[in-house]
Structure formats: structure tokens, C-alpha cells
């Protein structure tokens, strides 16, 4: 018979404390609304801009890069709060990618 280790009580308490920290429905709705409104506004601005097509493609790629970096950082932070191991080098890389996305969208 295999004897599996029993999780410690401290881990269970920390795990359940993290599970209880969920955002409200109003916050989730406001976050989705801000994302959708911002994405649409950015793309309308690109569509109406008097730039060359390759410039528009560059700014659209920067938008997608920034969104991906922001979601990656958010997932890493959430994993860290839930005591899931997070590679610190990867987290720093994601934060730098997020900062570059913000800087290049000037």
C-alpha cells in the first residue's frame, strides 16, 4: 500500500483564504467593459488614422502584444497568491514585456 503524505493544515488554510478572494461581479463587468471599449476605440482610431498600412499593422501588433503581456502577468500574480510555484525569471520577463508594450504604444 502506498502511503501518500497528508497536506498540512497551513496549506489548506492558505488555499481556502486565497479561494475566498474573488472580485465582485461589478468589478468583473467593469473590467470587461473597459477592455472592450478600449479595444474598439483603439481600433477605430487606427482605422481612421492617416498612416500607412504597415504603421497600422505595427500599432495593432503592439496592442495585441501588450494585452498578452498584461494577461500573462495577471495569471502569474494569481498563481503566486494561490501558492502555485512561479518562475521569478519568467515573471520578470513578463513584466518587462508589459512595460515594452506600454512604451511602444506611444
TrEMBL record:
Which residues are listed as membrane-spanning?
26-46, 58-77
Q: Name one Pfam family in it.
A: YiaAB
- Give yes or no: UniProt keyword Magnesium: no
* UniProt keyword annotation of S-adenosyl-L-methionine present: no
Instruction: Cite the InterPro entries for this sequence.
Output: YiaA-like, YiaAB
Q: Which UniProt keywords apply?
A: Membrane, Transmembrane, Transmembrane helix
Of the GO CC terms on this record, one is: plasma membrane
Biological process (GO) annotations held by this record are: DNA damage response
Q: Per the database record, which ranges form the YiaAB two helix domain?
A: 27-79
Q: What protein does this entry describe?
A: YiaA/B family two helix domain-containing protein
